[in-house]
Amino acid sequence: MKLKSGKIKKLELKIQFKVLISSVILLKESNFINGLYAEQSRVPPSLQLPISPVTKFKIALCQLSVTADRKRSIAHACKAIEEAVEKGAQFVVLPEIWNSPYANDSFPVYAEDIDAGSDASPSTAMLSEVARNLKVTIVGGSIPERCGDKLYSTCFVFGKDGKLLAKHRKVHLFDIDIPGKITFMESKTLTAGENPTIVDTDVGRIGIGICYDIRFQELTMLYAARGAHLICYPGAFNMTTGPLQWELLQRARAVDNQLYVATCSPARDAGAGYVAWGHSTLVGPFGEVLATTEHDEAIIIGEIDYSLIELRRTNLPLEKQRRGDLYQLVDVQRQNHQ
């Protein structure tokens, strides 16, 4: 009986071992398949998050008042950048259309041609000079840009050496009609940009969008797949959409893509033709509001810590769980350049 009992135990152990081996094999196969699916969900596959020159730094969001006096607006923006740097900021963001009234009849009047030299573009000349003098990286909000016979809403990014790193022309134009609330058609004067913009800076890889661009999650997903640490959206939401959707959209873009989102609005002028909502904000990779303000002029200082991106992506490994067998995001430009 003891001998028989021993044989049974050995047989049970063999069966348990085989079950264990089968489970390990199935788990490996499952992980391989899931990994394959996740990789297929981005075409071409996502780039790894690059190593940033810094992991922690202070960002400043300069919520500025805008007037019809361009010289005053340029001097005011310069002073705000200087104050932000005095407060420890290594990276400064300005609002959308900070050197001109936000109006279709103003865009052609205030438009600047950066390719025609500093005299033809005093706003970008100031940004370049102050970036170089203060050794600070600047996302220059947006200004009306003239290029040939076309006008764009354009964000110019300057490195701390004062050199132009990138420019983003607003990809999605603000054409909306909410009867009794607000109607605005940027396409009456502006032309849509044709390129997503991602740029490597002294404070990491940055994606750029302008205001209405934030509504299109595909652009944010594309930036995340290109390895962005942070996406900056200079923007001027209005008194209709702002209260409902401004913070919501920022937090959604940040948490869905597990990265930082920074927005910078003009300050509110209740007497302006277009009244901005304000509430410039920094959002972390877990969707948490890290710094914000109300509608008055303000310089908001927040701290960015890129180690939190890795932490949140470990907590919630979304990029490893995507189903490329069911859906895909195609980065057309990257695919065409392969």
Description of the molecule:
The chain has a single domain (56-315), classed as Nitrilase/N-carbamoyl-D-aminoacid amidohydrolase (4-Layer Sandwich), CATH 3.60.110.10. The chain has 8 helices and 17 strands. It has helices spanning 2-40, 70-86, 107-110, 122-134, 217-225, 242-257, 307-315, 332-336, and strands at residues 42-43, 56-63, 91-93, 137-139, 143-147, 150-158, 164-169, 175-178, 182-185, 197-201, 204-208, 230-234, 260-264, 281-283, 289-292, 298-305, 329-330. The strands form 4 sheets. Strands 2, 3, 4, 5, 6, 7 and 16 form a 7-stranded mixed sheet that branches. Keywords: Hydrolase. One of its GO terms (molecular function) is omega-amidase activity. Residues 57-306 form the CN hydrolase domain. This is CN hydrolase domain-containing protein.
- The percentage of residues in β strands lies in 15-25%
Q: What is the total number of structural domains?
A: 1
CATH topology: Nitrilase/N-carbamoyl-D-aminoacid amidohydrolase
Low-confidence stretches: 24-30
Mean pLDDT: 93
CATH architecture: 4-Layer Sandwich
Helix count equals 8
Shape: elongated
Q: Structural class, from secondary structure content?
A: alpha/beta
Question: Which sheet architecture does the biggest sheet show?
Answer: 7 strands, mixed
Multimeric organization? single chain
How do the helices and strands follow one another from N- to C-terminus?
Answer: HEEHEHHEEEEEEEEHEHEEEEHEH
CATH superfamily: Carbon-nitrogen hydrolase
Q: Please estimate the helix content.
A: 25-40%
* Amino- and carboxy-terminal Cα gap: 71 Å
Instruction: Give Rg in angstroms.
Output: 25 Å
